[in-house]
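R.M. (postdoc): so does anyone remember the format we settled on? I'll just put the structure tokens first.
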């Protein structure tokens, strides 16, 4: 008797549909392979917030009895496969329900697999993925992060590619035949999707990761209050008034010292302090009170608090003064303003390299306007993409009535 436990780590709302399709596909494939399966989400991740890391789980077992032993729970303590559908999550997971930062490979068992969609090399990803006290495998499917939303699914085949890769990773539980049958027979099935799953099965890249490899940073954590330290009744203190930045000038607002929010981010703002006209708009509009008012009247985004929503870029009236850049282009949460103050010429060069690289600035950080998904689909078709005519949710009505 044995079981396969998988987690899917995804961006809340934007990838909710994707994650549930993957876990559902695992269960359907398990049935086709003559096994039993169950899929469930982490209770504490609901309601979800945009971009906040969240988790779904799928468990496959040889027998019903074994499945019952592994039935739904808050969060399994160990998983055989961690599936991560956005490579910026390699920096760690601070979910709505989690307190502190959880490395992406934290639950992966020794010699288990971390399966990611990414265009980066393993070496580049390992700059962010935390070291683990046991060896494991890093498997890559070459793909950009797939973002859509709560009610739409981006038909880029990510879900079936993950299923095809899983058949390679765990052939004792999910055969390629079983995965193909499940894709074909599910309401989103199509021959094209079966072909994508098979390609992923053939093309998945896997590398053994040693205990010595990875990011050596100690993940952010804090002590939870003990029950005897809690006050009687429920009182929510108001946010204290902030403090001046330095020498009585500037202003640093008070922020939540526990929930940092930066793992929510897929992109971060990069600011050109030389062109800033000190209009205050970013400071007023930022939903998370991220901006410190600096002694010279410009605004510095405190990177531990920034959730990467892009509002500051949208409201800034000066062209290229605030530019959202892929989170993967950064190694720390250091102050941009301090870098600028120290060496303005060096900062200008740094800024140029960050915002000039189209690979880092074209990434989507969610949908900003109605119709963006339609525009993106059209752009993909215009650049040689293939239209999917079957298997789109809601449109495959004939199959739904079966
Ligand atoms: S992206 Fe800009 S507006 Fe959004 S949280 Fe970060 S600093 Fe604030
Ligand atoms: S919105 Fe732009 S110009 Fe206005 S203060 Fe912020 S960074 Fe400066």
């Amino acid at each position: 008797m044995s079981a396969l436990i998988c987690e899917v780590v995804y961006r809340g709302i934007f990838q909710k549909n994707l994650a549930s399709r993957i876990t559902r596909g695992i269960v359907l494939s398990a049935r086709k392979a003559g096994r039993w399966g169950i899929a469930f989400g982490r209770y504490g991740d609901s309601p979800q917030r945009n971009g906040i890391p969240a988790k779904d789980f799928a468990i496959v077992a040889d027998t019903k009895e074994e499945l019952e032993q592994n039935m739904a729970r808050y969060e399994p303590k160990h998983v055989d496969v961690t599936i991560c559908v956005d490579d910026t999550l390699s920096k760690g997971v601070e979910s709505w329900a989690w307190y502190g930062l959880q490395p992406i490979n934290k639950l992966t068992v020794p010699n288990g697999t971390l399966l990611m969609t990414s265009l980066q090399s393993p070496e580049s990803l390992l700059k962010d993925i935390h070291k683990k006290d046991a060896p494991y495998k890093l498997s890559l499917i070459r793909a950009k992060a797939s973002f859509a939303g709560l009610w739409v699914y981006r038909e880029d085949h990510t879900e079936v590619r993950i299923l095809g890769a899983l058949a390679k990773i765990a052939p004792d539980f999910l055969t390629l035949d079983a995965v193909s049958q499940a894709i074909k027979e599910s309401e989103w099935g199509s021959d094209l999707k079966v072909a994508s799953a098979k390609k992923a099965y053939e093309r998945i890249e896997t590398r053994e990761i040693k205990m010595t490899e990875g990011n050596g940073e100690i993940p952010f954590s804090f002590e939870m209050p003990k029950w005897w330290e809690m006050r009687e009744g429920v009182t929510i203190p108001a946010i204290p008034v902030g403090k001046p930045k330095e020498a009585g000038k500037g202003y640093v607002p008070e922020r939540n010292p526990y929930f940092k929010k930066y793992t929510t981010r897929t992109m971060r703002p990069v600011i050109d302090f030389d062109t800033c006209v000190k209009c205050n708009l970013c400071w007023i509009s930022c939903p998370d009170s991220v901006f410190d008012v600096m002694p010279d009247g410009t605004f510095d985004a405190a990177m531990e608090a920034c959730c990467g929503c892009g509002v500051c870029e949208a409201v800034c009236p000066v062209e290229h003064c605030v530019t959202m850049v892929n989170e993967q282009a950064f190694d720390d949460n250091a102050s941009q303003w301090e870098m600028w103050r120290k060496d303005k010429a060096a900062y200008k060069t740094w800024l140029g390299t960050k915002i000039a690289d189209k690979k880092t600035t074209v990434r989507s950080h969610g949908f900003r306007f109605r119709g963006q998904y339609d525009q993106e689909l059209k752009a993909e078709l215009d650049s040689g993409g293939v239209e999917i005519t079957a298997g789109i949710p809601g449109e495959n009505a004939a199959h739904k009535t079966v």
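R.M.: ...and that's the designed sequence above, right after the tokens. Also worth knowing: The longest strand covers residues 108-117. The first helix runs from residue 16 to 32.
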